[in-house]
C-alpha cells in the first residue's frame, strides 16, 4: 500500500532513519546522505579521492555546509573543486574536520579583546548614524492622506496598569525600541510595481553567530547586525535612507497601531486547549473520554475534511493584534505604551506599524519618520489627553 | 650581445686551435626551461645523496614526547623520516605534528634521520609554538613566491629576491620580488590579489609535500645561476654554515633557498589570502616590491569576522622588526 503523500523534506527524513550504516550513528547518516547526493558526473572523481574513501570507512564527519559558514570563499572553492555547483551537501574536504565555534582557538585575552572591540565598533557605527538629516538624506515629502509610512521593531518589556481621567483602569504593554535602523530599500519596480519595501532591523546582535552572506546587508547600510529584520510596505513618498535610526517618537499618543509577533509556543496540544472544544463530561458513564474531539465528520461525506481541527502543535506562529491604542510614549528610553496585550513572551521582538483599520486613520504623523536631530525637542513623556496624571493637582479651592 | 661574444670566442678558438670556455652568463632561457633544469638538478642531487646509503642500516630513535613515553623506534638510516615515526604512533600524530624536535634541533617532518637520536613532535597547540609558527610563516611565504613566479605572463620577468624573516606577530608574511620594469607603475588591484589567492588555494588543495635537501654551495649556485639575488643569498648562507651547506626546499616544481624548517604539506594551510603589495625603496637593479599575505592552518580555523580583521591588519607594511598594533596581543595569543 502506498504511503500517503509526503513533502520532499519528510521523505528525506525517513531516508535518514533508514540509512544503511546505523552503527555509525548520526555521523554515519550525514556521510551516507552526502554520498548519495553526489551528482552522477562527479561520482567517478569522488570515488577516486582515496582520502574521502578513507574518511567514510573511518566514519568521520564529512564537512557539511555549516563548516562553510566560517570559511572564506576561496578556500571553500578549493575544497569543492570535485563537486557539482548545486551540491552544498557534497563539499568534500580531505581532512578530519569538524565545525568549530568562533572562540575555539582563541585565548581568553583574545576573546575579551574581540568582545570589547565589537561593542566599541557598534557604538561607533550607531554614533555615526545619529544625524541622518545632515548626512545627505533622501528627499523628505509632506504627509498626504493615503500614504503608508514605515514601522518599528520593538522589544516587549512587560505590562502595567494605566488609569484614565474618568477613572477607568486599563492595562498597557510596554514596547521598547532598541537600536532600530533602516537596513535596506527595495524600490517598487522590483517588488510588485505598487509599493516599495523597507527592511528594518531591531536590537543589535553578536556577529559571531551569523554567516558572512547575512553580514553583507548590514555592511552596506553601515549598521551592526540585528536580531530581527522585518519588511514594511511603504508608499513612495515615505522612503528613508538605509542606516537611519528610528525612534519611539515615530508614533504619537492617541494613534492606533497593529503589533505582530510570534505567539508563545505551547507544543503539542489537545483539541480543547488548541481549538476550544467542549470535550465530554467528567462522569455519567464516560469511558476514557473527557478531552477528546469526538466525531470528525458526518456519515454522508464518509471522509475527514482537510483542515479539520485536530490536536497538533500550538503557538509559535505570527499573529497580529489589531487596533491597539498608544497611550503614552517615553522619548528618553524609547518606550511605547500600547493598550491591552500583545502576542509573544517577555523580551521578544515585535513588529509595530500604523493601524490599517478603516476606523483608525492617521492624521498628520511625523513623516517619513521622527528625526532626533531635527528642530523639535520633545519632552520626556508624551501622554494621550485621556490619561490621568498623578502629578496634577487633585483639588483646587477657589 | 652574448652571441657576438660567443662568435668571437669561437673564431679565436678556430684560429688558435684551443678551446674557449664561455665565461659569460648563460643565455636567458624561458621560465619553464629554468624550472625544468632546476628540478632535474634537484632530483639528481637527491638520488646521489640517497645512493650514499646503499645498504639499509638501522638506527634507534627514542621518543621523548608526553603521549607514549619511552617508545623506541627502530628506523632506517637515511631513509626514515620523523613522519614515519609518527606513523608508528597514531594518525593523530601524523595529522597534527608540524615539526620534529630531534636532539633539541628543529627538523622538517620529511627530512631523513641520519643517526640514533631522541625525537619529539611539535604541534600548533603546544605551550610554546614559536618554532611552529615561524615554520608556518616561512612555508606560506614560499607558496606565495611560487604563485608570484607563475602568475605573470611570460613576457614579464619576475625575479624572486628573498623571504624576510618577519615575526608572526606582525600580522603578515611577505616575499620581496623584483618585477619587470614595464610593471613599475602597476598598482595591483583587488582582483589581482584575488587571482593570486586562487592560485595559492589551488596549490594548497594539491596537497604537495615539502621536500628538503642539503646541498653544497656550488650545486645551489648552478641551480640558481639565472637569479643573482638568490646567488648572493646562497653565498651568504654558505659562508655562515661551517661546511658550506645550503638548505633547499621544494614543493611541486618550485625550488627555493630557505633558512629554516617548513610544514610537511601544503594542505596544512586552510585560510590563505594575498592581501597587499608595497613598494620598498628602489635599488639600482629595479623596484623591489613586498607582497604580503596572511594565512591560518586547519588546526586554527578562524571565524569570518575574525578573519576579516586579520586581513585588514595584514595590509599594513610589515618589516623585520615587526609593526606593533592593537591586534598584537590577539595575533600572538591566537597562534598559541
From TrEMBL, chain B:
Acyltransferase keyword on record: no
TGS domain segment(s): 57-123
Compartments reported by the entry: Mitochondrion
Predominant subcellular localization, coarse grouping: mitochondrion
A GO molecular function held by the record: RNA binding
Signal peptide annotation: 1-17
UniProt keyword annotations, A-Z: Acetylation, Mitochondrion, Ribonucleoprotein, Ribosomal protein, Signal
Record flagged with keyword Membrane: no
GO cellular component: mitochondrion; ribonucleoprotein complex; ribosome
Gene3D superfamilies tied to this protein: 3.10.20.30, Threonyl-trna Synthetase, Chain A, domain 2
Family statement: Belongs to the mitochondrion-specific ribosomal protein mL39 family.
Protein name: Large ribosomal subunit protein mL39
Underlying gene: MRPL39
